[in-house]
C-alpha cells in the first residue's frame, strides 16, 4: 500500500490504516533503547571532553545513540502525521511523544558544546521519559478512530429468516464489529438493504455484511461467523482489515457506539442464503444486491460507510 493511501482520510474521517498497536510498542521500545544507550554514553563517553560532534573515546556508542535518536524522530513524525490526519484519539499522545523526542534532540545537540553539556544531558534525561510514557500509554487499550457517521429501490432478493440470540452491546458500551466487503470478478460489491424499525418512514439504506463480535471472539472469527449467519457464505482465511473506524448512531430507538474493522474479500458472485438472523435483523433487513461501482456513484441511495464507492475503488487500485 502506498504512503498516500495509508494516510488517506475521507470527509467522514475514515482511514485505511490507523496507528497500529505494534507501532506504538515499537516506538516505546525504541525510546527505552535510546535511554539505555544514553546512560551508557554517560559512562563511557567522557563528560569533560572538549567541544566537538564526534568524541575520540566512545565514538561507537555516541554514533549509535545519535542514529537511534534520528530513527525515533522519523518514527515520531510518521505516527503523529497518521494520528493527526485520521483524528486518532491518541493524537495528543503522539504529539507529546514527538515533542519529547524533539526536546531530547535539542538536549543532544547541546552536548556538542562543553559548556552546555551538563544542561543538555539533563534535558535529555527529562524529555526521554516523556516520550516513553506517551508511546507506552496507547498499548494498553484499543485505539480506534474517531469518526462520526449517521449510520442508522432495490432489485435484490428477499430473505427467508432463521433466528439467533442478540449480540448487541449498546447504552454506553463500545461494540466491536467486523464487516466484510465482498467484491466479485466484475468489481461489484455485495450490500444488504435494511430499514430502521423505529423509523415511521422506513427509509432504506445499504451496508456491508457483518456484525458484533461475541465475548472472547476476535474480529476475523466474528467476520466468519456473521457472514455465514447473514449470507450463508463460508469465509475462509482473510487478510488483515484495510479500514477501521468508529461510528455512533441511533437505531431501533437505541444509541450505538461501535468500533468497526472492514475486511475486503475477492470472490465469485454467490446467492445470499441467510442461516441465522437476530430478531432485530429479522425486523430490519429487507434484501441484498450486488452493486457495480458506477451504480454506487450514480445511485440516489444511502450507503454505509458513506464513502463506500471511493473506498472500494482505492482498494481495487492497490490490487493491480
What does this structure look like?
- This protein has nine helices and eight strands.
- The chain is of the alpha/beta class and 320 residues long.
- The protein folds into two domains: 12-140; 175-318, Nucleoside Triphosphate Pyrophosphohydrolase, CATH 3.90.79.
- The strands form two sheets. A four-stranded mixed sheet has the order 4-1-6-5, covered by helices on one side. Strands 7-2-3-8 form a four-stranded mixed sheet.
- Helix 3 (59-85) runs antiparallel to helix 4 (91-110) and helix 4 (91-110) packs antiparallel against helix 5.
- Residues 1-18 and 142-172 have low confidence and may be disordered.
Question: Any descriptors?
Answer:
single chain, 320 residues, alpha/beta, Nucleoside Triphosphate Pyrophosphohydrolase, four-stranded mixed beta sheet, 8 strands, 18% strand, disordered N terminus
Radius of gyration: 25 Å
Supply the number of helical segments: 9
Low-confidence stretches: 1-18, 142-172
What is the averaged pLDDT score?
Answer: 78
Query: Strand share of the residues?
Result: 15-25%
| Second rung of CATH, namely the architecture of the largest domain | Alpha-Beta Complex
Number of DSSP-assigned strands:
8
Which H/E pattern describes the elements?
HHHHHEEEEHEEHEHEH
How are the secondary structure elements laid out?
Blueprint: H1 3-6, H2 21-44, H3 59-85, H4 91-110, H5 117-136, E1 175-183, E2 188-195, E3 204-207, E4 210-212, H6 219-231, E5 243-251, E6 254-266, H7 279-284, E7 285-292, H8 293-298, E8 302-304, H9 308-318
Parallel strand pairs: 1-6, 3-8
Antiparallel strand pairs: 1-4, 2-3, 2-7, 5-6
Helix pairs in contact: 2-3, 2-5, 3-4, 4-5
Amino acid at each position: 500500500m502506498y504512503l498516500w493511501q495509508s494516510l488517506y482520510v475521507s470527509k467522514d474521517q475514515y482511514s485505511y490504516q490507523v496507528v497500529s498497536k505494534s507501532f506504538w510498542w515499537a516506538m516505546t521500545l525504541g525510546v527505552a533503547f535510546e535511554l539505555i544507550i544514553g546512560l551508557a554514553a554517560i559512562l563511557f563517553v567522557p563528560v569533560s571532553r572538549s567541544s566537538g560532534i564526534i568524541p575520540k573515546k566512545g565514538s561507537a556508542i555516541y554514533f549509535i545513540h545519535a542514529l537511534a535518536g534520528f530513527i525515533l524522530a522519523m518514527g515520531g513524525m510518521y505516527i503523529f502525521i497518521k494520528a493527526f490526519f485520521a483524528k486518532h484519539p491518541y493524537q495528543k499522545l503522539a504529539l507529546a511523544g514527538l515533542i519529547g523526542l524533539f526536546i531530547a534532540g535539542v538536549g543532544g545537540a547541546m552536548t556538542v558544546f562543553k559548556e552546555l553539556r551538563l544542561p543538555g544531558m539533563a534535558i535529555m534525561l527529562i524529555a526521554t521519559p516523556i516520550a516513553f510514557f506517551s508511546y507506552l500509554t496507547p498499548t494498553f487499550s484499543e485505539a480506534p478512530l474517531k469518526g462520526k457517521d449517521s449510520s442508522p429501490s432495490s432489485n435484490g432478493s428477499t430473505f427467508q429468516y432463521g433466528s439467533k440470540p442478540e449480540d448487541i452491546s449498546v447504552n454506553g458500551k463500545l461494540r466491536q464489529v467486523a464487516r466484510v466487503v465482498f467484491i466479485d470478478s466484475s468489481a461489484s460489491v455485495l450490500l444488504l438493504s435494511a430499514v430502521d424499525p423505529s423509523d415511521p418512514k422506513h427509509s432504506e439504506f445499504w451496508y456491508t455484511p457483518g456484525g458484533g463480535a461475541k465475548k472472547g471472539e476476535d474480529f476475523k472469527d466474528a467476520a466468519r461467523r456473521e457472514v455465514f449467519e447473514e449470507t450463508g457464505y463460508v469465509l475462509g482465511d482473510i487478510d488483515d482489515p484495510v479500514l477501521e473506524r468508529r461510528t455512533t448512531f441511533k437505531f431501533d430507538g437505541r444509541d450505538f457506539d461501535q468500533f468497526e474493522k472492514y475486511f475486503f474479500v475477492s470472490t465469485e458472485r454467490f446467492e445470499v442464503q441467510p442461516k441465522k438472523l437476530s430478531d432485530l435483523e429479522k425486523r430490519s433487513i429487507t434484501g441484498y444486491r450486488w452493486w457495480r461501482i458506477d451504480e454506487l456513484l450514480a445511485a440516489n441511495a444511502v450507503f454505509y460507510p458513506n464513502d463506500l464507492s471511493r473506498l472500494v475503488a482505492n482498494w481495487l487500485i492497490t490490487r493491480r
